[in-house]
Amino acid sequence: METTNQNSDIFEPRKKGLPGMLNTLTILTFIGCGIAYIGGIWGFIQNNDYEKQMSDFQESIDKAPEGWARNMIESSMQMFEKSHEHRYILVATALIFTTFALSEPCKCVN
Q: Which of 19, 21, 29, 80 shows the shortest CA–CA distance to 54?
């Protein structure tokens, strides 16, 4: 009795195209890059209301008791100040590096 394995015939031509995992990875990369573009632009837009956000931080510091909560708010305030100072650099690098990340899967699709 002869058994043949139809799936392992080395002489059958294979279908051209992306393997399943690579196709999934490419789609997830497109989704991630879209989220990164939106996040970079959204962060830039949020930084434009500097005075209001600084007054909100100051109000939170005044209400917070001494200890780790106050230190955390002060640290967040310092991070916000630095991100506001460098907002143009941050949005430019976010857009540039997201574009770099997007360019490699585009080569695989074509």
A: 80
Between CA 95 and CA 91 the distance in angstroms is 6
Contacts of 62 (CB under 8 A, 6+ apart): none
Q: Which residue has the higher pLDDT, 55 or 12?
A: 55
Q: Residue ranges of the alpha helices (H) in the chain?
A: 20-46, 50-63, 68-85, 87-109
Instruction: Work out the number of other CB atoms within 10 angstroms of the CB of residue 69.
Output: 13
Q: Which amino acid is residue 39, in one-letter code?
A: G
Hey, how many other C-beta atoms are within 10 angstroms of the C-beta on 31? Answer: 10
Is 91 in contact with 44 (CB distance < 8 Å)?
A: yes
Question: 110: burial class by Cβ within 10 Å (0-12, 13-18, 19+)?
Answer: exposed
pLDDT (tens digit per residue) in 13-47? 766 665 667 778 888 889 999 999 999 999 888 88
